[in-house]
Amino acid sequence: MPIRVPKELPAIKVLEKENIFVMDEDRAMHQDIRPLQLLILNLMPKKDETEVQLLRLLSNTPLQINVDFLHMSSHRAKNTSKDHLKRFYHRFDEVQENYYDGLIITGAPVEQLPFEEVDYWPELSDIFKWSKTHVFSTFHICWGAQAGLYYHHKINKHQLAQKISGIYLHDVLDSAWSILKGFDDVFFAPHSRYTTVQKADIEATAELDILAESQEAGIFLVGNKNNRAFYAMGHLEYDRETLEQEFKRDLEKGIDPEVPAHYFPDNDQEKTPQLRWHMAASLLFSNWLNYAVYQNTPYDLTSLSKEQNQL
């Protein structure tokens, strides 16, 4: 089944070339079903690239999904045009009366700043608070995961000696979780970050479980035991070339980065990187939508506020 997005979103053309069925608003209006309502808070600099990456993964499900995009009105985007944001994105004040089955919060290139020094932290904190009463399940990615753990559980991030960048092997620690249904015992996933969260802090938090981790890269996936929040420290949504592009960008900035680990064949930067993580990516996102969201979300989303008020 398709994902429903604004009719003129540029990502549609890219996805249609990949034979991914994307339904525009006009056609979706003629389907008499209750689609999932999904909100994507896109904090990445190149928002159009992230749109394609996430929509590609969200399409791998038999569910119809209505997707809204959200940006931070308290932050000036430097790599996305004002026209694109105006046409395809909402401000928080425009959606705060809405209810959503699912929310995705992306990563952001601000991880070396203390959370409170990020210019849009007050607005993001308002969104975290709002999500408790207006969103059924939230999927946090990379810095978005660290920010979510900090806001909801007071778990802080810690600076690494050097950036983790590459494709790492991960172990599934608890296959009983539905979000990991169908996973092999091990899988590959990209990481690209300067900070980490400590395992002991997660283990000391009763509401959380560590679901997957890497011996090299550390924790990958954390789940709230009520299935209402997941925190992925890596970037399963990345394309084949994304780490290469980040590496070249850092070279141009004079950062002298390490070559992404286990990424280029024979560590040869002239060779095309192997794509080894998209099967896991598709499965993780489809499992989240199916088991954590669709099979548990209430038909009447306004009941989320009533439920929270009773706690």
UniProtKB/TrEMBL annotation:
Gene3D superfamilies cross-referenced by the UniProt entry: 3.40.50.880
Keywords: Acyltransferase, Amino-acid biosynthesis, Cytoplasm, Methionine biosynthesis, Transferase
Binding site for substrate: 163, 192, 249
InterPro entries: Class_I_gatase-like, HST_MetA, MetA_family
Site (Important for acyl-CoA specificity): 111
Record-annotated site: Important for substrate specificity: 192
Pfam family, one: HTS
Enzyme class: transferase
Coiled coil: none
CDD domains according to UniProt: GATase1_HTS
Main location (coarse class): cytoplasm
Active site residues per record: 142, 235, 237
EC numbers for this chain: 2.3.1.31
Pathway(s) served: Amino-acid biosynthesis; L-methionine biosynthesis via de novo pathway; O-acetyl-L-homoserine from L-homoserine: step 1/1
Record's catalysed reaction(s): L-homoserine + acetyl-CoA = O-acetyl-L-homoserine + CoA
PANTHER family in alphabetical order: HOMOSERINE O-SUCCINYLTRANSFERASE
Record's function text: Transfers an acetyl group from acetyl-CoA to L-homoserine, forming acetyl-L-homoserine.
HAMAP family linked: MetA_acyltransf
NCBIfam families: metA (TIGR01001)
Protein name, entry field: Homoserine O-acetyltransferase
Source species of the chain: Enterococcus wangshanyuanii
